[in-house]
Amino acid sequence: MAESHGMVGFGVTDAARFAEARDTLFTNRDSGMAGPLRFTYGDPETATDVKATYPWAKSLVVVAHSYLRETESPADRAPQVGRFATADHYRPLREATAAVAAELIEQGFRAEVLIDDNRLVDRAVAIRAGVGWLGLSTMVLVPGHGPWTLLGTVATDAPLDTTPPMERTCGTCTECIPACPTGAITARGVDARRCISAWLQAPGHLPHWIRPHVGTRIYGCDDCLTSCPPGHPPMNKVKVSPSHLEFAELLGSEDPELRERFAWWYIPNRDPRFLRRNVVVAAGNSGSLSLSEAIESQFEHRSSLVRGHAYWAYARLLGVEAWHRLEVAYRRERFPDAASELERAFLMLRRPTV
C-alpha cells in the first residue's frame, strides 16, 4: 500500500520508548546545542514515548517519501528555499499514511497518523524500523534516496511484525562537516546554535553574526544534503526547474499574502514578520543593488523587528552609500530594538572590514 502511493521506504517497530533519543534531547537542550529549536525539545519525555500520547499503541508503521523529483533548484541571486519546502511535499506522505491508517481501522484496529509532530521523534522511529540509518548530519539516509526524504508514522494497536534496523553507518565519510557554512555539524551531532535552517524558523531577531552566512536563503538550507554522497545518485537523475521567486515581489507583498503564499512552511505563530525578516536579510546579502528600494520600503513597516533587519540589510547592500538614508531613519525611529539595529548599521559602515 505504501509503495502504491509512491513511498520509497517502509518499516515497522514496536511502541517501546526511545531511550537513547530521550537522552540526546535532554543532553542537547541542557548543553545549549538545541539552540533556537523547540519542537521535540519542548517535551522530550512525550516525544520519545508514543504511549504518553496513545497508551494503546503497540506498533509504529513508518514510511518515507522522496521529494527530490518534485523540487525546484535554487537560483544564485534569487531567494533560495530548501528543496523540501519548495512546495507542499508532505501531501503525498499524508495521503499514504492516511491510507495505511484507514486499512488498519478497517481491519478493526486503532490507528493515528503522526507527521512532523512534536509528540514523536520520527527520525529515531525510522531508524529503529530499518527505513534508513542515522547520518552524521543527523538526517535519516534511505538506501537509494539518501537524505532527500520526509517521514510519516502511523501508531496502531495492531500486533505487527517488526523490521530490523539497518547495520549501516556513514563510515569514514565526513563530507557534510566542511559543507556546512557555519560549522554546525560536529562529531557530537548538529549544534543548532549555528544552524542556518534552525534560525530561519526561529522567532525574534536573527543574530548578527549569522546574517551574512544566511546568503540568499529565506527558508531552509540544503548544504549538508547536497554534499551527502548517498544523495548524489538521485540528485543527478532529477531535472529540476529553476525557482521563480523574486525578492522585490516578496517584499512588495502584504503580510497576509506573504503568509498564505507559503502556507505549508513552519513560521512561528504563523507570524509573517519572521518570514519577511528572512527575506530582508537575504536581499541585503544578494549583492543586487537594484533591490535597495525594495529594502528601503521596509523602513515603513509597522513592525520594529522588520524595520531593524531592513536597516541592517540596507547597510549590508549599499555600504557607505546607505549613510544618509539611515540617518533620516534614525531621527524618526522611536523603538529601542530598531534604533539599536541602526546603531549597528552605522558601525558596519564605519568599520566595514570587521
Treating each run of at least 4 consecutive H or I residues as one helix, how many helices? 16
Query: CA-to-CA gap between the ends?
Result: 57 Å
Spans where pLDDT lies below 50 across 5 or more residues? none
Shape: elongated
Number of domains: 2
CATH class of the largest domain: Mainly Alpha
Percentage of residues in strands: 5-15%
User: H/E element string?
Assistant: EHHEEEHEHEEEHEEHHEHHEHHHHHHH
- How are the strands ordered across the major sheet? 1-2-8-5
Q: What Rg, in angstroms, do the CA atoms define?
A: 22 Å
Q: How many strand segments? A: 12
Main sheet makeup: 4 strands, antiparallel
Mean pLDDT: 95
CATH topology call of the largest domain: Leucine-rich Repeat Variant
Question: What structural category do the secondary elements indicate?
Answer: alpha+beta
Helix content: 25-40%
Give your account of this protein's structure.
With 354 residues, the chain is of the alpha+beta class. The protein has 2 domains: 3-75 and 83-156, no CATH class; 187-350, Leucine-rich Repeat Variant. 38% of the residues lie in helices and 12% in strands. It is built from 16 helices and 12 strands. The chain has a 4-stranded antiparallel sheet, with helices on both faces. Strand 9 and strand 10 (189-190) form a beta hairpin. The protein is elongated, with a radius of gyration of 22 Å.
Output the keywords.
Leucine-rich Repeat Variant; 38% helix; 2 domains; alpha+beta; 16 helices; elongated; two-stranded parallel ribbon; four-stranded antiparallel β-sheet; 354 residues
SSE inventory with pairings:
Elements: E1 9-14, H1 19-31, H2 44-47, E2 59-66, E3 72-73, E4 80-81, H3 91-106, E5 111-114, H4 122-128, E6 133-134, E7 140-141, E8 149-156, H5 176-179, E9 185-186, E10 189-190, H6 196-200, H7 211-214, E11 217-219, H8 223-226, H9 232-237, E12 241-242, H10 247-251, H11 255-261, H12 272-285, H13 292-296, H14 304-318, H15 323-332, H16 336-350
Parallel strand pairs: 3-12, 4-11
Antiparallel strand pairs: 1-2, 2-8, 5-8, 6-7, 9-10
Helix pairs in contact: 11-12, 12-14, 14-16, 15-16
